[in-house]
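About this split. The held-out portion is used to measure sequence recovery: a designer receives only the structure tokens and must propose an amino acid at every position. Recovery is the fraction of positions where the proposal matches the reference. Here is one held-out target exactly as it appears in the evaluation file.
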């Protein structure tokens, strides 16, 4: 008796990509696409059929993974080449052709179909049996037939993918995490050669400054209101802050002093939260009668912010400079944020609802 497996289609994968590759906002899910391709090449290496894997980040933002294995099979499966079937549908075994062993480079393995479904375009090149074949795909579907380009004296499989910007808010591969993992794999697999190239032009200019930081670190959530941006000189301390609230209960406050990240926060981060709390009490009479602690709890719920201070002679609690202890930074940030947020919160009724639990 034959049982049909209710596997998801490409649209289902695209609706819930996190189920298959993890976080699509912080870059880890994006890199997982590369690890799925590398894992398939590693299988060939463990079987004694592959000695080299190349990973290339291309000028246009795409990524190429290529090996010198035997080439993915092209035999006919239900009227289509095996390679096309593997890239356009799920399968019931750990690998599409049932080969073993099978390596998972990332947290888990999801197969080539997921990689294809989450790519705006994907191209497959196979060198096998004396010929070079190619085929193109988009968002989980084949958009061309398998084409024989000509003869070839080598063997291997190459897959080039372009992450779909409709899925990934920032489709930019983290070269550091990729190279670190490939180096680790080289230690574990001494007979394998892994190469990595980054051919992209890295040019960074963000005229909107800290607001862009918030947009890139929302983890898929939409803010309750537009961000509040503060840029003010208080005495000799320049205060910059970007603040918004997300529909969640946790808070995230990133902090910098003289453009160095203070990983443990400090007086500037404390000043930010206290300034927001005092502004809430200034702007809303009902909050004035409540304890300051309650206002701090209210503004901290869902808080998503970054604060930067530039100051002379900053003081820290340790040589690592992980926590700012300059007392003046707390006063400066609190003052700047308090004045700006008092007017801001009065103009945004949805924020007031968030703080009171009526949203």
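Reference sequence for scoring:
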């Amino acid at each position: 008796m034959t049982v049909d497996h209710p596997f998801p289609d490409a649209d289902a994968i695209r609706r819930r990509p996190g189920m298959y590759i993890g976080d699509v906002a912080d870059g880890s899910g994006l890199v997982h696409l590369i690890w799925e391709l590398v894992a398939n090449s590693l299988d060939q290496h463990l079987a004694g059929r592959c000695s080299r894997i190349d990973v290339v980040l291309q000028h246009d933002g795409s990524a190429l993974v290529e090996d010198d294995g035997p080439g993915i099979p092209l035999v006919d499966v239900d009227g289509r080449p095996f390679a096309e079937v593997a890239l356009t549908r799920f399968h019931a075994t750990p690998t599409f052709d049932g080969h073993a062993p099978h390596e998972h480079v990332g947290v888990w393995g999801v197969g080539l179909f997921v990689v294809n479904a989450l790519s705006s375009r994907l191209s497959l090149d196979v060198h096998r049996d004396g010929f070079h074949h190619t085929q193109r795909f988009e968002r989980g579907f084949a958009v061309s037939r398998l084409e024989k380009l000509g003869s070839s004296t080598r063997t291997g499989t190459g897959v080039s993918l372009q992450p779909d910007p409709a899925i990934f808010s920032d489709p930019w591969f983290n070269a550091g995490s990729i190279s670190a993992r490939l180096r680790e794999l080289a230690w574990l697999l001494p007979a394998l050669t892994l190469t990595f190239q980054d051919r992209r032009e890295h040019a960074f200019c963000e005229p909107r400054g800290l607001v862009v930081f918030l947009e890139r670190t929302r983890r898929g959530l939409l803010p309750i209101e537009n961000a509040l941006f503060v840029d003010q000189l208080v005495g000799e301390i320049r205060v910059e802050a970007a603040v918004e609230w997300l529909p969640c209960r946790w808070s995230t406050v990133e902090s910098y002093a003289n453009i160095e990240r203070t990983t443990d926060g400090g007086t500037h981060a404390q000043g930010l939260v206290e300034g927001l709390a005092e502004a809430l009490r200034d702007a809303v009479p009902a909050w004035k009668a409540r304890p300051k602690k309650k206002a701090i709890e209210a503004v901290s719920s869902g808080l998503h912010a970054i604060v930067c201070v530039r100051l002379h002679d900053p003081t820290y609690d340790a040589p690592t400079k992980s926590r700012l202890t300059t007392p003046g930074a707390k006063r400066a940030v609190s003052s700047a944020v308090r004045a700006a947020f008092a007017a801001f919160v009065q103009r945004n009724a949805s924020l007031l609802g968030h703080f009171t639990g009526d949203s």
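Annotator remark: Residues 1-5 have pLDDT under 50 and may be disordered.
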